[in-house]
Amino acid sequence: MTYRLDLSTVEGQGEIERDPAGLEGAADVYYYFVTDGSPLDVTITAVPDEGWVFKEWQIGETGEDPDIRVENPTVVNFTPGSTDWTAVAVFEEEVEICHTVPSDWHFFGLPVDPVDTGFQALEFDPQPTDKHLFWWNPDAEEYVGRADVELRPMSGYWMFLTTEEAAYQVCIEGSRLSGDQVLELGAPGWQMISVPDYPVAWGPAAGGTLEVRSGAEVKSLQDAIDAMWVHHTLYSWDVEDKEWKTLRATDGATLEPWTGYFLFAHVGGLELLYSEDAQGQELWATGQALSAEALAFDPGTPPLPPMMTDAEPTAGLVAVAYPSPVRGEDVTFALQGPQAVSAQAMRVQVYDLSGQVLFRGEDAGTSLSWDTMTRTGDPVASGVYLYSVEAKLNGQWVSAGVDKLLIVR
Length: 409
Fold this sequence. Notes:
This protein is mostly beta strands and 409 residues long. It is built from 3 helices and 34 strands. The radius of gyration is 25 Å and the shape is globular.
């Protein structure tokens, strides 16, 4: 059987690639043959011209209203007995999108599909004297510093801007994320997420709809929580009080663009499906209680970024490193102060000024040593480094502060 694929887009905005190519007919018309009764998949990829970005596919069988598909590339399928396909690639012009963000530490979300995915794509006005960006990699279970951060649409990031200004304007070139959107999560554990350029409901609240997909199965947010796919509580950061803010789905909350959130996923490889249709509140069955297992699970609090300092270190607990400066091979980190005797364990991270983690250790007691070797077994060079220390008090990890470490070879 012979099938026809009609492809179109606006000239000067982009083009469409096909695999397999098929036989050309009239302009933007291609023919495919199904000879043995097996389905034939054709992958089509929208490639924008300079100054334009891909927005969406409008795909449907001939004579029907097209479905809207966001994924690019996407696949059309010819099955014996089906009809022909039409596909329109929709592009939109790149624009500079700006938003006001606070100084100091805050949890930043990206409701934009950026043209450039490097940290340098973010432009600030005025220019802060120091700025940092960290993203939690769920697969490696560690933070990635600004030199290695990839700006991903609808991901969350820790951002630090020096406090000589109360706020800054951050700008990035790209396209705003509207309509249906998909966010891929990583391995089980903590995930840094945000939402498209519209509010989204977390539980019975105002905003767009959030569903969860695992493989081919899609569940409502409520059912995904009940099935232990995702945890029922999100974490955001309170800039003024410098502490975690919890958002329980059972209470209902509206997730806002440009804000980051921590989500705990019990299952790896999940996808968050966002829709601008404001059905989130209606889809939550308020009379239906979550399972006891889902409510009882406690993942703890999300990991703080390696450079973060709390407003004040825990009262009566400080961390020191000696000798200082370090001239030999070993350095010892120790907890001191009245609360040190209550510490059940401590953990230390050492990282360079770009945010790259060089050492991570954990041990029982109040001291821990490091041989000043990197995680790959190489001696660190002379220079200034940062270290953060946490202590386990009454079963909970608390920060004992962040300080500088000078190594002289």
